[in-house]
Amino acid sequence: LSPVSVLGEIVVNEVNFVRKCIATDTSQYDLWGKLVCTNFKISFITDDPMPLQKFHYKNLLLGEHDVPLTCIEQIVTVNDTKRKQKVLGPNQKLKFNPTELIIYCKDFRIVRFRFDEAGPEGAKKVCLAIAHYSQPTDLQLLFAFEYVGETYHNPAKKVNGIDPGGGGGGIGSASGQQTPLFETYSDWDREIKRTGASEWRVCSVNEGYMISTCLPEYFVVPSSLADQDLKLYSYSFIGRRMPLWSWNHPNGSALVRMANIKDVLQQRRIDQRICNAITRSHPLRSDVYKSDLDKCLPSIQEIQAAHIKLKQLCVNEPFEETEEKWLSSLENTHWLEYIRSFLRHCAELVYMMECKHVSVVLQEEEGRDLSCLAASLIQVMLDPYFRTIVGFQSLIQKEWVMAGYQFLDRCNHLKRSDKESPLFLMFLDCVWQLLEQYPAAFEFSEMYLTILYDSARISLFGTFLFNCPHQRVKESTEFAISKNIQLGDEKGLRFPCVWDWSLQFTSRDRLLFHNPWYIGKSAPCVQNGAVKTFKRSKKNYSSTLRGVPPALKNGIISEQEFLPRRNSLILKLKPDFLQQTESQSNSMEEYFRDWFAKPVDLHGVILPRTTGTQIKLWKLCYFRWVPEAQINHGGFITAFHKVSLLADEVDMLNRNLRQCKSNSSLQGSCSELDQSRMYFRANSLNNTSGVPDFLSSSFPFSPVGNLCRRSILGTPLSKFLSGAKIWLSTETLANED
Fold it and tell me: How far apart (Å, rounded) are the C-alpha atoms in residues 336 and 430?
């Protein structure tokens, strides 16, 4: 038995006769095999079939039981006879022979192995190897560097038989359109022309990162600002991060990001000069509206604390003991409250640009955390291009990767950062909330969002590996020199790009990315009275974005509206939000009221509904590894399956009509009919009325063998996390040696 490996991957240690635990109350379903630690992942290789599993999507880089090293959060070794457990850090000694290994993953998985039949020394060595290689001390020790080094020394070799293409674009949609990476002058210039920002220009003053190491080489500034002025002003900004243009509204309003000005004496003068330049770039010479995100939104520390509480609730809490308090415990994590805060604040800024026709400046201390999320979310609400797959990927490149979001620190790839914070996950969660409310407005599915989040934990791709573009150039150049790699004219090594999805998935599996509800621009916008997301009644639209239900009268809310449905996974309404309505302007309320009273234009602005019952927990992302939370033959995927069949049938009929009208040959007709953008196809199933056996609420993921609770068959949600008491909390384990 040997693991499926990629270029540059080497086996560090391995041990035979290992048992992977599938259930805790019986060993009937346990799998026997070999546990392997490489410099890229941990692999469990077995000939035994996975029990009770009929489907799982296949990642070409990872085996069925593999975990990337950068996805590991904590490693715990246990000795049953001595009743000892130890959280393993890098370069630590293990004084006992482990009988069990528990791996806590960043994606909420828990994987458990037993060494009852394995040699004690072999078990100890593989545990120490996993601890060492999953907690590297230096950025250049991450696997991406080893892989890229091998590709330069062996250019003929390819991963999965496909050329990684360096940082080039990848398969983003059915048309194969490439994702712009915004590394070049031309990418920014095309975006200016696409948005009609005629009074803005691409600035190359930071070429070679001469001004700021945390800005891209090219970015967009007002045409009235000269390069010399920008150089002069840059010294006054934190990190020398000058104002960055993000997007232009058709009415001329601009969205701009800006770091704080640290020079107190020059603050007012420089601020006025920047605002004047933005005003002159507006065709109506409208004012500039500044939003201080540090004051309006939760801090990165608060978001991290909320994420830790959410993980404890979804993974470690014994639900059978806290069933009555589960909803209040969810509320106490503040995760959904922060989701609501971002959606609400961004909706208000959409109002300023859309209705007031003013440019918006997002101000933040360094301008590379909260502003990434806010700027991206505003553009998703305003621009339908960013609701397509290629557009969404270009948005992440523009507002996160190139704008200097600190993926290395915030994702904590080196396991030693006190700056960890899941802002990128929160952004994907916010987008999921919009997708849930307006499914026909997005080309991509929630499976796409979940897999995108997982890809940030795979250390092969350079997209989510660095704190800024300059760090990629600097670190990879140093690595190239140490490995005698000739770079030529290239600025650093070229890492595989995550947007080339063909590196991870087959063309068949990539069809899961496509949303069957999506109504493209070429199709007419059909209003269906049965779909509530398209039209709301007047009694429900008032103060929707203020978090106030229709039953609120004279500051009093009825008990029926306040209490959530039992066993609901929706955050109940907080009383704190009920006091906010009076302070809001009448014009903003009127704009929201009018917008919600009209049918939704799927290719125009979309606004979030942020009442307590509308902000939900993203179950596919957070519950997918929990067998007890799995609903066999149920969940959102059943609707996805039915709509996919209908959409595929409609597409097939349209293709038939086009073939008949064009009188093309039979051969051409057959080739076109074979094409489909749906994963589930109407013509490939004998019985379209039934639900396939492999469908469950965890689809396309399999919770079997990932979170070892008492039952693997799945129980009602009231039994959720049954048996969790056998798990020690990570906090308890961290305090014991």
Answer: 10
Distance CA 31, CA 53 (A): 13
Q: What is the DSSP letter of 315?
A: I
Cα 318 to the center of its chain, rounded Å: 27
Neighbouring-strand partners of residue 36: 14, 43
- How, if at all, do strands 72-79 and 67-68 pair? unpaired
Give Cα 109 to chain centroid, integer Å.
16
Token representation of residue 387: 């609701």
Contacts of 536 (CB under 8 A, 6+ apart): 596, 597
User: What whole-number distance in Å separates Cα of residue 237 and Cα of residue 634?
Assistant: 53
672 Cβ contact partners less than 8 Å away, ≥ 6 residues apart: 655, 659
Residue 14 clears pLDDT 90, i.e. is over it: yes
Give Dmax (Cα) for the chain.
Answer: 79
Cis peptide before 700, with omega less than 30 degrees from 0?
yes
At position 339, the amino acid (one-letter code) is I
Name the region of 343 (left: φ>0; alpha: ψ -120 to 50; beta: rest). Answer: alpha
Q: Which helix (H) or strand (E) holds 359?
A: strand 359-364
> Average pLDDT of 366-378?
97
- CA separation for the pair 378, 134 (Å, rounded): 36
| C-beta of residue 364 within 8 angstroms of C-beta of residue 260 | yes
- Rounded Cα distance, 10 and 109, in Å: 25
Residue 389: name the closest of 451, 458, 454, 462 by CA.
451
Residue of higher predicted confidence among 682 and 474: 474
Contact 598, 527 (CB under 8 A): no
* Cβ burial, residue 214 (10 Å; 0-12/13-18/19+): buried
Decide if pLDDT at 581 tops 60: no
Residues forming beta bridges with residue 257, ordered by sequence position: 244, 362
Residue 702: DSSP 8-state: -
Whole-angstrom Cα distance, residue 105 to residue 622? 12
Beta pairing partners, 114: 19, 100
R_g over Cα of the chain: 26
> Which residue type does 287 have?
D
- What's the pLDDT score for residue 381? 98
For 486, counting Cβ atoms within 10 Å of its Cβ (0-12 exposed, 13-18 middle, 19+ buried), the class is exposed
Closest-CA residue to 380 (of 334, 450, 422, 429): 429
Residue 546 reports pLDDT greater than 60? no
pLDDT band at 490 (very low <50, low <70, confident <90, very high): confident
Two structure tokens written together for 42: 């941990």
Confidence of residue 195 (pLDDT cuts 50, 70, 90): very high
Asked if residue 14 lies in contact with residue 115, where contact means CB atoms within 8 angstroms, the answer is: no
More confident residue, 468 or 51: 468
- Count of C-beta atoms within a 10 Å radius of residue 128: 21
What is the distance between the alpha carbons of residues 261 and 271, in angstroms, rounded to a whole number? Answer: 8
pTM: 0.85
Q: Which domains does the chain have, with CATH numbers?
A: 11-135 (2.30.29.30), 185-513 (no CATH), 625-656+679-722 (no CATH)
Separation between Cα atoms, residue 103 and residue 113, nearest integer Å? 9
pLDDT in tens, 375-429: 999 999 999 999 999 999 999 999 999 999 999 999 999 988 789 999 999 999 9
Sheet with 31-38, edge to edge strand ranges: 67-68, 41-45, 31-38, 11-20, 110-114, 100-105, 72-79, 84-87
